């Protein structure tokens, strides 16, 4: 497995397409509990991703991990500081297991902490056991809260996980 050197920085408007590609690649690999996941991707139109990048305003952040070798976006994380939330985190499958997601998560937590929050929360699909293992390893624990949602006509349940943030 090739070592990957990444630069992590705020997302730029011109990277919306790549961010969408990271999302699609990651869900194709991880969301296999949707039997027809291949038919569901791409989940969002390009205009969605353009707004996704353009609409981020401080103190919230949308950070990208960019492979130093080819300048390709290999992961991203976003926060919603008002709710102490790491609200999105995805890494390209070929870059997973190399610390990219851990670094992105840590930087998101730092942004939330810098805004004065004492804890961070995130929501993840109840069926996504791999993501839950990653978050548990980073210090998150389920707090008993759940919510339901749907995407492309498929219902799912999410669990909330919480982590105290120390100074």
TrEMBL record:
It holds the Pfam family Acetyltransf_1. GO terms for molecular function: acyltransferase activity. Its EC number is 2.3.-.-. Residues 26-166 form the N-acetyltransferase domain. Keywords: Acyltransferase, Transferase. It comes from the Bacteria. InterPro entries: Acyl_CoA_acyltransferase, Bact_Acetyltransf, GNAT_dom. This is GNAT family N-acetyltransferase.
């Amino acid at each position: 497995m090739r070592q990957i050197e990444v630069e992590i920085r705020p997302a730029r408007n011109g990277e919306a397409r790549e961010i969408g590609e990271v999302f699609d690649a990651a869900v194709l690999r991880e969301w296999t509990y949707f039997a027809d996941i291949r038919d569901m991707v791409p989940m969002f139109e390009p205009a969605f991703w353009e707004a996704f990048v353009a609409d981020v305003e401080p103190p919230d952040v949308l950070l990208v991990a960019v492979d130093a070798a080819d300048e390709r976006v290999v992961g991203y994380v976003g926060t919603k500081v008002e709710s102490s939330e790491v609200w999105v985190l995805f890494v390209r499958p070929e870059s997973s297991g190399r610390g990219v997601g851990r670094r992105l998560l840590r930087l998101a937590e730092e942004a939330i902490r810098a805004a004065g929050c004492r804890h961070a929360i995130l929501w993840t699909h109840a069926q996504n056991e791999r993501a839950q293992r990653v978050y548990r390893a980073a210090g998150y624990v389920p707090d008993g809260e759940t919510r339901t949602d749907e995407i492309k006509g498929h219902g799912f349940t999410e669990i909330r996980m919480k982590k105290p943030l120390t100074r």
